[in-house]
Specification:
two-stranded antiparallel ribbon, globular
Length: 268
């Protein structure tokens, strides 16, 4: 667990917080390979990708008539993304986008769950670069599909929607232009980033302060018992963040499928 502050004035402060919260997310370079610097966040990003590959490899490498519980779990995850997101949102064409959706969901799920993983306690998705990269990739895919399927009608019908009364077309078109071509990648990335940062920050402050105050009981007496409250609240947040980690991976993948579907079936 990353403590909320390296030093804490337990006499005058009720909860320990760093002067600069970026201390919770900045890590020094661990090692360098060929001029490339690897910090804790970049190592965890690679580790998350390795975990995903290992899960699918060991879960699917042997096709059995009666699969193991682990194999059933992996197949269930694949079916959930393929059917529950790809097919149900995109339609019959969703199968071709299942590999991308599955890779994204799996990576985000593992990366998010690092927040509540002992000895790690750091979600890699709390660094804006990762949500931004995945969001940009999704943006390029649905932009390419939109123009490939509809040519320049994709842009023209967005700016001048024929289903809207003439007097409102310019306003609705302007809103749609900014929404589809500018705001979608930004909101997709910020939604994931903000949720994971907020959760990580709250866990660090609550659990870190709880440990600090409980350790200071011999010095400050019963006042240190407030650490029990912070620690209990931190444990509640721990369970809540477990749900949030899964939910945010699902929402990001679901919205990706929604954006792809809107480009494929633009006429709807």
């Amino acid at each position: 667990m990353i403590l909320a502050a390296e030093s804490c004035d337990v006499v005058n402060e009720v909860i320990c917080a760093p002067a600069n919260v970026t201390e919770l997310f900045e890590f020094p370079t661990i090692f360098t390979v060929g001029g490339l610097e690897f910090s804790r966040s970049s190592v965890l990003m690679l580790f998350a990708a390795f975990v995903v590959l290992a899960l699918f490899y060991f879960g699917l490498r042997q096709q059995r008539l009666v699969p193991t519980k682990f194999g059933v779990a992996i197949e269930g995850a694949i079916g959930f993304v393929r059917d529950g997101i790809g097919r149900d949102v995109i339609g019959p064409e969703g199968a071709r986008y299942t590999p991308y959706l599955l890779a994204m969901f799996s990576f985000l799920l593992v990366g998010n769950l690092f927040e509540v993983t002992p000895l790690i306690n750091f979600p890699v998705t709390s660094r804006m670069a990762i949500p931004a990269f995945l969001s940009l990739t999704t943006y390029l895919i649905f932009m390419f599909l939109g123009f490939a399927r509809n040519n320049f009608r994709y842009l023209i019908d967005t700016v001048w929607p024929k289903a809207v009364p003439v007097g409102l077309r310019w306003l609705v078109g302007l809103i749609e232009l900014f929404s589809i071509f500018l705001l979608r990648p930004l909101t997709l990335a910020v939604r994931l980033f903000a949720n994971m940062v907020a959760g990580h920050l709250m866990l660090s402050l609550l659990l870190g302060s709880g440990v600090v105050f409980l350790a200071a009981v011999p010095e400050i007496g019963l006042k240190g018992s407030i650490g029990l409250f912070w620690f209990a609240l931190g444990l509640f947040m721990f369970l809540l963040e477990l749900v949030v980690s899964v939910l945010q991976a699902y929402i990001f993948t679901l919205l990706t499928a929604v954006y792809i579907e809107s480009s494929i079936h633009f006429e709807h």
